[in-house]
Amino acid sequence: MEIATRVQTLALRGLRELPAEFIRPANERPENSKAIEGTSVPVISLSQPTDVLVKEMSSACSEWGFFLITDHGISPSLIQRLQDVGEQFFQLPQEEKEKYANDPSSGMFEGYGTKMTRNLEQKVEWVDYFFHFIWPLSKINYAIWPQNPPSYREVTDEYTQELLKVTDKLLELLSLGLGLEGEKLKSCLGGEKLELELKINFYPPCPQPELALGVEPHTDMSALTILFSNNVSGLQAWKDGNWVAVDNIPNALFVHVGDQFEVLSNGKYKSALHRSLVNKEHLRMSWPVFCVPPLDAVIGPLPSLINEENLPKYTSKTYEEYRYRKFNKLPQ
Ligand SMILES: O=C(O)CCC(=O)C(=O)O
Ligand SMILES: [Fe+2]
């Protein structure tokens, strides 16, 4: 396996100019595609009554595909501890981190990674990451989790338990918002077999942030993604032809619809196109958790949402097939 050049290693070299593979074509550069002013992402407090939440959330998912949640019940100190252990891992000596290197080309997605490129047409992103399952127990491979700092596992397990409660609540509200029974969307995601994947994105300060992207525009193939950052701005989501910067509200969680919920809802909920920018001064980190069905779950528009006015807009297929097609850029 070829060892990737890590973005963190490049950043430590104190480059003044960005290597060519990071320089985006003019139309993709942040300097030429700025976020609009005067629009902000809906903020939904989970402390409101259910009927209010159902309305606010379903309209946010239909109109925006994303929203921020506050009063979600996860303590600020737990979020801080999760940030600390993630940051401590990335501060380890490089050779220590390389012990966890992943190898997506041979199907080993979990571990420490950086996307590579072999030709200059294909640009790369200014980010290193760590990726692993956090749920269900049968999918967890603790051997690939950072052993350092030693509290990484305990803190991450605790966050998982708290996040499962939030996920259940969101899935229930989003089901009700489609006029379905509260348990419906969770059962479509395999019920207790629903999977959670954690990615830690590490974006070092970048010498020419106006020419680069942290993560290029994409929709997540998950059903739902729940994310927070270290309060350094950079995440943007696409709404009606413009980029909208996601505000940093301390301890709020950013929630967005992924492809599987767009398909299940037959397009009522929109999978959010989003990207992240980097900056010159500050390290940015983010912790998305992807909520996904098991690979053998068949995902298609829900029959109860289909009628003569609402014909199916998507084909049904297993999540495994969807993932294969998305990775290989094949039509769905
Ligand atoms: O860093 C962020 O805020 C977004 C990252 C992201 O979209 C992803 O990893 O899928
Ligand atoms: Fe994403």
Topology at a glance:
Blueprint: H1 7-12, E1 43-45, H2 50-63, E2 66-70, H3 76-90, H4 94-98, E3 111-113, E4 128-135, H5 152-177, H6 184-188, E5 195-203, E6 215-218, E7 224-229, E8 235-239, E9 242-245, E10 253-257, H7 259-264, E11 274-276, E12 284-292, E13 298-299, E14 317-318, H8 319-327
Parallel strand pairs: 1-2
Antiparallel strand pairs: 2-10, 3-4, 4-5, 5-12, 6-11, 7-10, 7-12, 8-9, 8-11, 13-14
The structure holds 2-oxoglutaric acid and fe (ii) ion.
CATH architecture: Sandwich
Strand residues, percent: 15-25%
Q: How many E-type strands? A: 14
N-to-C span: 31 Å
H and E order: HEHEHHEEHHEEEEEEHEEEEH
| Main sheet specs | 8 strands, mixed
Count of helical stretches: 8
Q: Give the low-pLDDT segments.
A: none
Query: Using only CA atoms, what is the Rg?
Result: 19 Å
CATH class designation: Mainly Beta
- Tally of structural domains: 1
